[in-house]
Design goal:
heterodimer, A: mainly alpha, 76% helix, globular, B: mainly alpha, 12 helices
Chain lengths: 339, 307
């Protein structure tokens, strides 16, 4: 098992190198010269040439790539063309906002998704099953940004009960700390700020979780249906155990293995959805930052965000595989065990 | 050609090949039965055909539209839905329903064209990787893993930023990011098929690798690809709308659903219809492709049909 884990960790390196090559090719080879965008159309040729030299864009492409990789390995992702701050610092300042939103969204998606999936499986082909499947179908068909907009129109525009943008009211913003506002406000004991943070989180969390919730619902239903047909479930029922105990303690527990994999993988894809949700809710995370940077040709930032998201995505996959290997006794890794 | 050889050599190899040919013919029948027997899938197919007709008619005969989709009339700006303008008007006084109907052209074009790109490239790469195995397989599939490590929408945004706005560029960006999924599906199917009797039979009668892939392996991978491609169109439409929403899609004044949504954001509370109807159009179209995909999958997979 240890050998398998080490092998998987080592395989992450070429994947991340490949991701760096892809994003470098897109932003430095395919993309047009950023100088006129950053300096403005009226900048002189001399000013643009000097700017390119300053940012290493006048070097040959291969040298730019070597420098990019060399610096990235040391944790230096360059500086933003606009703020002139290190990209790592810019990302670090915004990452907690995205992480907080994504964690809340995956928790909501998992809780509701598993509940709907279990109800659908237990009440197969009944009204509750059809209703759950309809919710799941709408969830995968609804553009993530449109669900956000509808929530804003309803809860902020018509009912006026929830805020439509930002993480917290400016005067209540906690200073310093972890930048995870739920934790910071709880630690400082400022319950008014804590409530405000939660109120700001509700709509973006719901919008972002909808797609993952739909996928988890489908997976739970399908996995539960497989498990409910197993012999040990019939045995449990024959023993006279209550239906609820059989469903939860026996069926759901065994059905959770593939579901937990999907939850892990969904967390990675939530980061992609965060790009759109953060834009809709003006959420100051890395998603909105990436979109703004793409529109402004701030390529060092784009490279940094893509690399960070890829690292998280790859390590989430790795964690899912390793947890799966621990949880499922049927899976064996390594040459000897395979035979 | 395989059939000619089959009559000349009515051996066990021939029987395997014949069975394989019969299987290919039944795929289309299964697809149709799956869609026809599933009410939701059948209605979705009718809806998609209707959308295609709307796209073609509005392109070829724009005079049938009640209004000009691009003509600005500021005196008619931001009118709420009424008998005259069923879905209201936008900030430039353009009829939203007309723009939604015209927007069908872009959504369907990008949806189908992007899937065509990812399907052809993905199937080709997946076939080569699965059939050749060894270093070729490792290189191709590691490249696919690298692409999969970047969320598709982020990759599409980066590609659009590099290529610039435009329908054909959106097609390329959205088509490129979906390639790995097709390659993976095809590769895994080929790995299980390439050792089968009929592939061995084809090899014995002297078919080349290319002939084997084209005639015997790809038709067997077809069910998985048809299902994935149908669902792929819905994903491509969602991605197109997302790019449009972020301002990276088509060039104005072209009508595109995501772009219409994005432009309506400034008036979200004043004129919610700007965002409600284009969003509904996206959702219904995506829903139709998802339901159709489910119907086709049920038709092709007897296990799912039972459930």
């Amino acid at each position: 098992m240890l050998k398998y884990i080490l092998k998987r960790i080592l395989m992450v390196i070429p994947v991340l190198l490949g991701v760096s090559v892809i994003i470098f090719l897109i932003t430095r080879v395919l993309a047009p010269d950023p100088a006129p965008v950053v300096l403005g159309e009226h900048a002189t040729q001399e000013a643009m040439a000097a700017w390119r030299v300053e940012h290493g864009l006048a070097d040959p492409i291969w040298l730019q790539f070597v420098n990019f990789i060399g610096n990235a390995v040391q944790g230096d992702l360059g500086t933003s063309y606009y703020t002139h701050q290190p990209v790592t610092r810019e990302i670090a300042a915004r990452f907690p906002a995205t992480a907080e939103l994504a964690i809340c969204a995956i928790i909501v998606a998992a809780l509701i998704g598993i509940a709907l999936g279990v109800i659908a499986a237990v009440r197969k082909n009944k009204a509750a099953d059809h209703a759950s499947m309809l919710v799941a179908l709408v969830g995968v068909s609804m553009p993530i940004f449109w669900s956000g907009i509808l929530l804003i129109i309803l809860f902020a525009g018509i009912l006026h009960v929830l805020p439509s943008n930002g993480r917290v009211a400016p005067m209540l913003e906690p200073s310093g700390g972890t930048r995870f506002f739920i934790i910071d406000t709880l630690m400082s004991g400022d319950m008014e700020a804590f409530r405000d943070v939660l109120r700001h989180l509700i709509l973006p969390t719901l919008a972002l979780s909808l797609y993952s919730m739909a996928i988890i619902t489908r997976m739970t239903r399908s996995s539960m249906l497989d498990t409910l047909n197993e012999d040990y479930i019939r045995t449990a029922r024959a023993k006279g155990l209550k239906q609820r105990v059989v469903n939860i303690r026996h069926a759901l527990r065994n059905a959770m293995l593939p579901v937990s994999t999907v939850i892990g993988l969904q967390f990675g894809s939530l980061l992609g959805g965060a790009l759109l949700t953060e834009t809709v809710f003006s959420w100051p995370g890395i998603g909105k930052f990436a979109v703004d940077s793409v529109l402004k040709s701030d390529f060092p930032v784009v490279q940094g965000v893509v690399l960070l998201v890829a690292v998280i995505f790859v390590f989430m996959n790795l964690a899912v595989d390793i947890i799966y290997a621990f949880l499922d006794p049927k899976i064996k890794y390594g040459n000897k065990e395979e035979g | 050609m395989a059939d000619t050889k089959l009559t000349a050599n009515p051996t066990l190899d021939g029987v395997a090949l014949k069975k394989n040919t019969e299987k290919h013919e039944s795929i289309l029948k299964d697809v149709w039965e799956g869609v026809y027997s599933n009410k939701a899938a059948f209605v979705s197919l009718c809806f998609i055909i209707l959308l295609a007709v709307i796209a073609i008619v509005t392109k070829l005969f724009p005079q049938v539209l009640p209004y000009d989709p691009n003509l600005q009339n500021l005196s008619q700006a931001l009118l709420p839905p009424s008998l005259e303008h069923w879905c209201g008007t936008d900030q430039q006084g353009r009829d939203i329903l007309t723009r939604i109907l015209t927007g069908t052209q872009i959504s369907l074009t990008v949806g189908f064209a992007a899937v065509a790109i990812s399907l052809v490239t993905g199937v080709l790469l997946g076939s080569i990787a699965g059939y050749r195995g060894g270093a070729t397989d490792t290189i191709i599939m590691r490249c696919m893993d690298m692409m999969l490590a970047i969320p598709s929408i982020l990759l599409a945004i980066a590609i659009m930023a590099a290529l610039g706005k435009g329908v054909e560029k959106a097609v390329i960006a959205i088509g490129l990011v979906a390639i790995p999924e097709y390659a993976r599906i095809v590769r895994s199917e080929i790995l299980s098929i390439k050792e089968s009797d009929y592939v061995a039979a084809a090899r014995i009668i002297g078919d080349t690798d290319f002939q084997i892939i084209l005639r015997h392996i790809l038709p067997n991978v077809l069910p998985s690809i048809i299902v994935r491609a149908t669902l792929g169109v819905s994903m491509a439409i969602l991605d197109t709308a997302a790019l449009g929403f972020l301002g990276l899609g088509v060039q104005p004044p072209l009508a595109e659903w995501g772009d219409m949504l994005g432009r309506g954001r400034a008036d979200i509370f004043r004129a919610p219809w700007l965002m409600t109807f284009p969003g509904l159009a996206i959702m219904l179209t995506v829903l139709a492709f998802n339901l159709l995909g489910n119907g086709i999958r049920d038709g092709l997979d007897p296990k799912t049909r039972k459930r």
